[in-house]
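Q: Predict the bound structure with zinc ion.
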Amino acid sequence: MQGYIIHTQKVKDEDLLVYILTEENVIKSYRFYGARHANIMTGYKIDFELVENQNFLPQLRSVLHLGFRWLTNRDKLIIWQQLMRLFYLHLKDIGSVDQIYFNELEICAKRFGLANPKRLIIESYIRILEAEGRLHSEFECFVCDEVIKDKVCLTRGFLLSHPHCFKRDEFDKQAIEILFNTNSTIELSDNDVNKIYQIILEGF
Ligand SMILES: [Zn+2]
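A: Predicted complex:
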């Protein structure tokens, strides 16, 4: 089986709780400490086996790290681990999940080395919101329900508001409209991309 480690937590000495996102599940597994075990870290894509346990969590075994070259780039690694944290918080209490989450990590991982990671994550997040039915492409303010005409503020979950109704970072409506309709950040400046990325960091 293959999956992404979206969270690890130390328990008892050196044992680990390991949360893995696969195509269909978020698996909470247990790894007993062993000096000869390969190192594992949040963000790694791994091939692994599970040993089922009647009275306890499945045990994580035969872990093989499927590396990405960009993992040695510290800045990219930090952004990747931020993304893992967002996925973990969003999915940790759900057993079986839609394939989109795994697939989006696959898309990002493949392109993380060459593209701007923040742009990739924004584009992924739009697709996830769309799949979850949470993308507000009708441009109505969530405070007053009136249509938004030129400037738009974005907040967590990409809720939209008039600047005078709910003050957050402000963007040109047209740029956000293009983002929502095409899933592309091409019309956004790096400055806008940084601001939008910060909004995503507040939580899926
Ligand atoms: Zn309003």
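A: Residues 141, 143-144, 146, 161-162, 165 surround zinc ion (CB under 6 Å).
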